[in-house]
């Protein structure tokens, strides 16, 4: 399996985080639970839920797009 390099960690101030309220979305019907997005997320905002599908914590997500680029089935998007 090809190793994926992680993007640099970006931090937003609390004030900018409120303005920057988008978060990655995971289509639960498309997600295969491979965990690629979990490993690629620089802030740890993504975890696998009880069904084995990726779930994003919108309060931790910084919209860097790292998860979008590694999802093999296109289940992760930024709105």
Number of helices: 3
Derived from helix and strand composition plus strand pairing, the structural class reads alpha+beta
**Overall morphology:** globular
Radius of gyration (Å): 12 Å
Order of helices and strands: HEHEEHE
Low-confidence segments, given as residue ranges, are 15-19
Could you tell me the CATH topology label: Alpha-Beta Plaits
Walkthrough of the structure:
- This protein has a single domain, classed as Alpha-Beta Plaits, CATH 3.30.70.
- With 79 residues, it is α+β, with helices and mostly antiparallel strands.
- A hairpin with a 5-residue loop joins strand 2 and strand 3.
- It has helices at residues 14-19, 36-40, 66-70, and strands at residues 24-26, 46-48, 54-56, 76-78.
List keywords for this structure.
4 strands, 20% helix, two-stranded antiparallel sheet, 3 helices, 79 residues, Alpha-Beta Plaits, alpha+beta, globular
Quick take:
The chain is built from 3 helices and 4 strands; from the N terminus they run αβαββαβ. The chain is α+β, with helices and mostly antiparallel strands and 79 residues long. β2 and β3 form a beta hairpin.
Task: Describe the secondary structure blueprint for this structure.
Layout: H1 14-19, E1 24-26, H2 36-40, E2 46-48, E3 54-56, H3 66-70, E4 76-78
Antiparallel strand pairs: 1-4, 2-3
């Amino acid at each position: 399996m090809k190793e994926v390099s992680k993007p640099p960690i970006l931090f937003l101030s609390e004030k900018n985080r409120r303005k920057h309220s988008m978060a990655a979305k995971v289509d639960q019907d498309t997600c295969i639970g491979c965990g690629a997005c979990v490993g690629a997320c620089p802030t740890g905002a993504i975890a696998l839920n009880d069904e084995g599908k990726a779930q994003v914590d919108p309060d931790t997500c910084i919209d860097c797009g790292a998860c979008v680029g590694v999802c093999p089935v296109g289940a992760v998007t930024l709105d």
